[in-house]
Amino acid sequence: MTTIDDLRQTFFEESAEGLEALDTGLGELTESSSEEAVNAVFRAIHSIKGGAGVFGFSSLVDFAHVFETVLDQLRHGKLAAAPQVVEVLQKANDTLSDLVAMARSGEAPPANFDADSRSALTQLIGGGEGGDHDKGVADDFDDIDFQPIRAEDTEGELRRIGLVYRATQAQYDDKFAAVLNALRAVGKVDLQADIEAVPTLADCDPNQAYIVCTGAIETELNENELRDIVTGIDSSGSWALGDAVNETAAAAAEPADALPAVDLAPSAGETAPAAAAPAAAATQAAEHPEQRDATSGKHAATTTIRVDLEKIDRVVNMVGELVISQTMLGQMFQNVQGDPEGRMAQVLEDVFLHTRELKNAVMAMRAQPVRSVFQRMSRLVRELSVKTGKRVRLETFGEGTEVDKTVIERLSDPLTHIIRNAMDHGIESPDRRRAVGKAEEGTITLLADQRSSRIVIEISDDGAGIDPERVIKKARDNGLIPMEGHLSEDEINNLIFLPGFSTASGISEISGRGVGMDVVRRNVQDLGGRISLKSTPGRGMTIQLALPLTLAVMDGMIVKVATETYVMPISSIVECIRPSASEYHSLLGTRGALRLRGAIVPIVYLAELFDLSASRETTDESTVIIIETSEGVRVGIVVDQLCGHQQVVIKSIEENYGAVRGIAGATILGDGHVAFILDAERLGEFAKYPEFVTARREQYVQ
Amino acid sequence: MPNAAALKVLVVDDQFSVRQMTRLALEKIGVRLIHEAENGQEAFSVATAQPLDLIISDFNMPEMDGIGLLRAVRGHQAIRKLPFILITGRGDRELVVKAAQAGVNNYVVKPFDEATLRQKMEAVLGRLQ
Do B60 and A154 count as a contact with CB atoms less than 8 A apart? Predict the structure, then answer.
């Protein structure tokens, strides 16, 4: 049974939606002050206020009330949506969402928490009024002369009058809808397309479509009054009403009894043409267009339902199991004899297809637009603008791009970090910008886009970009890289992802504690994503996050090493090659290397790493999978055999066992065996720090 | 004297949580037959589709607001006498005036408990059993 606590929870969910709508609406207001946007904003705030009242969050109600008063003025055109007004509203929105968050966590807002925002709001409406209202708010409006009205006996003299409408295609016009509207205003109309009232096919004119509707109206008016209404609008005689057609209506209600309806056809419509309706669907559609609108509107309002995430996850899990079973089935089928016509293969093919569709459909249920995260960022930019004194505009694209809910939830932190960095280090001060000939207002662009099975999020700014000299100096000062040696542009840019790197000369409040970009990279990698960076000194920089659409299923390459089977995520594979023996090199101090089109690629022998064999033997069958880590480092992974590409369901081993470096998870293969999913990022690290690998290997052995 | 358990009440509010709170209050009063609608338009089609004894509607809703619904009900021959209680927020005095002009039977101010709601209902329907 639903408790008030549950409902309070629901209220907070609704409030979150309301705040989002508020954000969107206010965003639209900055561009144009459309009436629709104002109304949406007003409604959102009003709902939050109403709900807060019901659940007893008085500080929320008080503030929302002032906010609402201002919006009401805006709505009635007493206040213009000037930029400075919208700014105040946006701040009020921030305050409001803080108040909601506090109400949710159960903490009392600090004294005068909303004072600033509140006074800014009251100033907009000439001061005082919001506060005034506040004091004067009573539970009843005793000063209003309001007398409750006792309900009267509502049972009026209702009578049922039959209705028939007949027309050919040519006769049918918009008067039909007008009559129907008029009838609806005076009673309850029940009118249906009547296929039964149509003569036999032989009597139909093949060049005509016939429209026949029969039914009745329940009204307090009498037949003559009703007739006046109808003929006042449509005098063509397509309508017939009265007791004469009552039977038709009754007959229409019982389609089995078709005879009377046909018999009645000539008598009911004196002026009606020889009616027949081969196109019943057309009749239905034409019946009452405006009601159709109403019902479709109603549908729009009720086509979403709230579903417990747990329930969806249960479906996701089952689909995962189904994918596994289906793969097993496929493998068994390979060994089955006696399907000469290929019919079993055909059915199996269908099963595969449907499973895939089902998987996509279920994944789509968990998907949410990135809008909510992007909107949080716009607030961040506003707040940071104030703190840094820099003027920055946030532009967003592709907010509708849908990603798995878990990915969305974990996207907020890295994005916040990146935007903080861009605001603090990237965008220059207005003076500086003017000096270098840029617009005083900086721009940060957020873009989301789906590219095949990944979602790409790009954060660009038009600030100073990365200064390579400073980065190198800083990295050397911090002992992150050797004092000598040349680094490529990419390598320099990637230095900012190193732990403990920070180029800000002083530690600012916003960023620059040196724990930033490395955490961001870790966050993104934990999501199975990659991060990359492009910078043009003086022009700005772009950070790109490539994230998987879903975390539950992925495309994997099945590989065999000695007796074991592993899965390598396709997303990190660059290419697979089968080098000849002479192309392997054993360089001192490394695990070995491969010469690949002139470049030296470090390699990792999987068999050795996982202690499946001590030697680094390669055979003619040995294949090297070239993977690329998020740092852009290429590493070759030596395996014995490639067994093919397969969708695998990711099962966490962390939950049941613990994290193992180099292993991202496990899955169940088509043959029912469990295989580990390799973690390309960590494998890359093994190649980079061979001595570390040895140490790890000793741990494995233990 | 109407029997609460036999009353058919339509609760209209676009916010699920608030709608359910009203429902809980009604259930405590003893009302068993409760219809729900999310906005005025939906409420209107519910109200015209079956006999009801009372509409309790919020004001602020998309599609058609509470006043719009009230006017539509009052303008509809078959249901124009249907008792109508409007839910208002604190400070919505202008709204109450407007609703009174449109022929509302009574109003109730959010937040309300079942005792208040009962009292407001009884002022319209007579003492409830």
Answer: no
B93/B77 Cα distance (integer angstroms): 29
Query: Chain B residue closest to A295 (CA)?
Result: B42
Tell me the CA distances in angstroms from B55 to A185, A612, B35, B64, B105, one per residue in order. 19, 75, 9, 15, 10
A223-250 burial, b at 16+ Cβ within 10 Å, e below that, comes to eeebbebbeebbeeebbbbeeebebbbe
Measured CA to CA, the distance from residue A87 to residue A93 in angstroms comes to: 10
User: Hey, are the CB atoms on B77 and A219 less than 8 Å from each other?
Assistant: yes
- In angstroms, the CA A689 to CA A591 distance is 9
Which pair of structure tokens corresponds to residue A99?
């108040």
All residues at 6 or more sequence positions from A170 whose CB lies less than 8 Å from its CB, including other chains: A208
* Omega within 30 of 0 (cis) for the link into B111: yes
| pLDDT < 50: residue spans in chain A | 128-139, 153-155, 244-302, 505-514, 690-702
Tens of pLDDT, residue by residue over A579-624, are 887 777 776 556 678 888 877 888 888 887 887 775 666 666 788 8
Separation of CA A517 from chain center:
26
Q: In terms of Cα–Cα distance, which of A368, A380, A445, A375 is closest to A409?
A: A368
| Beta-sheet pairing, A239-241 with A187-193 | unpaired
Q: What is the largest CA-CA distance in chain B?
A: 36
Q: Which two tokens stand for residue A696?
A: 């790890």
Locate the DSSP E strands across A549-598: 553-561, 564-569, 573-577, 584-585, 593-596
The predicted pLDDT at position B9 comes to 92
H/E segment holding residue A479: none
Residue A665 near residue A677, CB atoms below 8 Å = yes
Q: For B9-44, write each residue's pLDDT tens digit.
A: 999 998 888 888 898 889 888 888 888 898 888 888
Write the CB contacts of A126 (distance below 8 Å, at least 6 apart in sequence): none
Length of chain B: 129
N- to C-terminal Cα separation, chain B: 7
Residue ranges of B 14-53 with Cβ closer than 8 A to chain A: 14-18, 20-21, 24, 38-39, 41-42, 45, 48
Residue with tokens 């449509």: A234
- On whether any CB of chain B is under 8 Å from the CB of A257, the answer is no
Q: What is the count of residue pairs from A and B with beta carbons less than 8 Å apart?
A: 131
Contact call for A218 and B78, based on CB within 8 A: yes
Q: Cα–Cα distances in Å, from A565 out to A268, A332, A557, A672?
A: 80, 18, 10, 12
CB under 8 Å to A565, separation ≥6 — which residues? A558, A559, A643, A669, A673, A675
> Which run of H or of E encompasses A63?
helix A58-75
Q: Which helix (H) or strand (E) holds A14?
A: helix A4-31
**Which residue, B53, B75, B51, is CA-closest to B64?**
B75
What is the predicted pLDDT for the residue at A132?
Answer: 42
Answer yes or no: are the C-beta atoms of A556 and A568 closer than 8 Å: yes
* Cβ proximity of A573 and A625 under 8 Å: yes
Under 8 Å between Cβ of A670 and A584: no
Residue B54: predicted pLDDT: 92
Strands A159-168 and A239-241: antiparallel
Calpha distance B104→A148 (Å, rounded): 8
Residue A615's pLDDT is 61
Mutate one of B9, B17, B38 to test the A interface: name it (highest A CB count within 10 A).
B17
**Is the previous residue joined to B83 through a cis bond, with omega within 30 degrees of 0?**
no
- Is 0.90 topped by the overall pTM? no
Query: What does chain A come to in residues?
Result: 702
* Predicted-complex ipTM score: 0.80
Please name the residues in contact with A687: beta carbons below 8 A apart, sequence gap of 6 or more: A590, A591, A602, A603, A604, A633, A635, A636, A693
